[in-house]
Amino acid sequence: MALQMDGRLTRNEILEFMANAEVKEGRVTNQVYGEMNDRVRDTVISLIDREREGEQIDEALVKNVLDIYVEMDEDSMKYYVKDFEESMLKDTAIFYSKKALDWIASKSYEDYMLKVEECLKNEEARIQRYLRYKSKHKLLEVAEYELLSVHASKLEEKKQINLAANA
Predict the structure, then answer these.
(1) Within a 10 A sphere around the Cβ of 26, how many other Cβ atoms?
(2) How confident is the model at residue 29 (pLDDT cuts 50, 70, 90)?
(3) Domain boundaries, the chain
(4) Which of 20, 54, 71, 84 is most buried per CB count within 10 Å?
């Protein structure tokens, strides 16, 4: 399989992975899963980040790939959690940490809070469209922590400056 320049898989390569990753009795019957998991996971996470940046992505493809993780062990969802969700949550923290730093430096308190609200709504919508509901609490917690808790003192300072300016 040929990789794109940045190491991600193409859409056709992901579809090939899905076609070869037959799930029977909780086991992937093809070695392709073990060989391709990291690249498939990283590509899906990259697609999610691109969507967070406002790009349209193939949500059906993302959902179908995530369904494979679930189908391998529907009872505990251990493959979804271990092989996808943990990495996705780490990436979410990095993504929103960078966004928060940019926005805290460039936006007013009100505009920052509007961006936070928009991001949290988008994450909830993402969960409904293709992520698992089981991820909801963890995903929102990570996003809120990076966007609000980490910068609480700076946000309070911006809020007080804004209140003083409007007094």
Answers:
(1) 12
(2) very low
(3) 11-166
(4) 84
Side chain identity at 68, as an amino acid letter? I
Helices (H), the chain: 11-20, 32-52, 59-71, 78-80, 86-106, 109-129, 136-144, 152-166
Residue with tokens 């009795």: 25
The Cβ of residue 93 has, within 10 Å, a number of other Cβ atoms equal to 15
What is the per-residue pLDDT across 74-112, written as a single tens digit (0 to 9) for each? 788 888 999 999 999 999 999 999 999 999 999 999 999
**Domain 11-166 sits in CATH 3.40.630.30:** no
Instruction: Find, among 137, 147, 150, the residue nearest to 52 by Cα.
Output: 147
Query: Reduced to 3 states, what is the DSSP secondary structure of residue 40?
Result: helix
What is the Cα–Cα distance from 108 to 166, expressed in whole angstroms? 13
